[in-house]
What does this fold into?
Amino acid sequence: MSTTQTRAGATRRPSTATRRQHRAAYLFVLPFFVVFVAMLVVPLVYSGYLSLFERRLIGGESFVGLANYLRAFGDPNFWGGLGRVATFLVVQVPIMLGLALFFALALDSGRARGSRSARLLIFMPYAVPAVIATLMWGYLYGPDFGPLAQIARAVGLGTPDFLSPQSILGSMMNIVTWEFVGYNMIIMYAALRAIPAELYEAAEIDGAGQFRTAWSIKIPAIRPAIILTVIFSVIGSFQLFNEPSLLNAVAPDAISNSFTPNYYAYNLAFINQELNYASAIAFLLGLVIAVVSYVVQLGEQRRERRERKGMA
Amino acid sequence: MRNTRRAAASVLGSAAVLGLVLTGCSPSASDAPSGEAVTQDQIDEAMTTPTELTFWTWVPDIEDEVKLFEEKYPDISVTVENVGQGLPHYQKLRSAIEAGEGAPDVAQIEYQYIPSFVLGESLLDLTPYGADDLSGDYVEWAWNQVSPGEQVWAIPQDVGPMGNLYREDILAQAGITEPPATWEEYATAAEAVKTSTGSYISNLGATQAGQMIGFFWQAGVKPFGYDGAETVTIDVNSDGAKEVADYWTDLIQRDLISTDVDFNDAWYQGLASGKYAGWLTAAWGPVFLQGTAEGTSGLWRAAPLPQWEAGQNVSGNWGGSADAVLASSENPIAAAMLAQFINHDEESAMQLATQQFLYPPQTSVLEDPAFVDQGSEFYGGQQVNKLFAEISDTVDTDFEWLPFMDYVYSSYEETLGTVIADRGDISAALDTWQDQLVSYAEAQGFTVQ
It folds into this structure.
């Protein structure tokens, strides 16, 4: 009771102490806001502004309104790239998160030997910079001198072409999975460690085995963490850039300039010198990411609500 | 803000050099009217005034040649900066030009990119600085590359007239003792090499636009044209171009030519291991190959490109660059002198050819026995430099580019690159390429002829 009273009093007439606290709070977030505005908001607004113009090599700059956006809607390259990352999302993300969940549960069960070093080993690829990782995989995939191709040849399977236009997307999924399984696993593992032990005791008393515990207690308990990794992965997939950009050096015939929307925007800006159109593409991409992330989150919230209602 | 700052600077500047402005001797860019020759007095004055120049280039160890310049003109100090090779270099250069500050005084620019900087009026016409007098000192076609009209936009540094490097031992195994003189003979030889040794006679880099354009150049095809203003000519799917394309389609589809992407590890290994029995390359190729395929020293030979007609003797060019002065340079005289000195001074030019192994466009070097009479062990003692000097004389003198070659190359990769890698019909891909180039040019406001 007394707390509500003080709080009500505070809103009416803030004491000097709270006011000072407020000021301190603003002071603490100020550096963040300065950087946030200077490095994110201003460039964002500027690129939104740029996207409304058109600059030609002959004739200079002119205001074109939403023409760049209309062009993007009819641009098969943009949709092709978007389709590719959507495929990537639908195929690669479940595999990666499934693996991450499996590893996290295995480590958490405490049954795996040497779990500490296993954890480190699974996490290690995340510490390898994407640039190095892609160059390394470029070598591993090499059709002539790559070890994978050499092994395949040695056992009489012929030369697999990981870098052909047909298989490059799969090869890229493999690289990204390798890179990010550890990262997602750590998030899930940390969430698993935070589950109160009483739940396990209760489950044990009810006669639940390891699998039952995992399915009915652990996974539901860490669902917020899983959703977090899903959203990170959605954003990551749509923003794919390093991998296509670096693999382009190894397999330029397989990676088109519009392989992913982000890579397309980059090429538009720096090769085609269509900075304005590139800004429009980047903006649309941001919009798509926001919508998809929101849908994922919304779906989760609905489900939670439905389940709560079902319980009641 | 940019404008105010520049305005403020010019106010300060003119106040400081008021006396000079009145007599018309200011060293600043705006006071050296283009078209009007700079006098020797002005040059002497500029070259004895302490000046700092910036020079963007990716030529390794060019500091050695810059040092010669600084010894001759002790008052000028030059900072050499390497901001990347090729595309990254141009991106940074364009950004700096766009930003209005931070651009160098002198920059290395490959021939095919000169028009794109001429278009933005970013380059200084070097005619008033005496560059016109140098025209006779360079092979004609190279000079045409830097000076397609009245103006001189850059000073040629190196060139890449094309020839044929081949493995004498592999060809001999296939019963071929003379390098193929015509493309027809080359096709026959390719078949013999493939059946008796398993090697490809050479590799056509799937995404290597430079090589294919070099073949067009040799065949007398003129795919591009630019009038220096707003009109471009795009004709990449002409009958001549298609003839060249069909020739390669045929060899590729018969599996006599490989289409691996070049300049990566697998390709280096292919050259070193005999997967490719040859390389149709440019004059910078011989030295490059020595470093790549050391183990095969003595087995290689050089020859001119095969010809379309027996008895003909023509070639194309692939690569090479020039040094240009940016229009924004505040020390145009000193900058123009630097670009000229590096690529014209006899000692400097000779050093570029013998230490950096840039293939020279300067006739002084091409006629110097110290350069051309050099035998090369890697090529069984052959005088490779002399051979390419002869080839250089046979390069078609008129070949133009479009003012947006970045896009042309990237579009080539998209259209021809994928088709060549898939062993498809290159002629058909030329049509797609043409369409893409025309629609890009039109969207950018050019008049397409």
Summary: The longest helix of chain B spans residues 426-443. Chain B touches chain A at residues 87, 91, 94, 119, 206-207, 230, 261, 264-266, 269-270, 275, 403-404, 406-407, 410, 413-414, 417-418, 420-422, 440, 443-446 (CB under 8 Å).
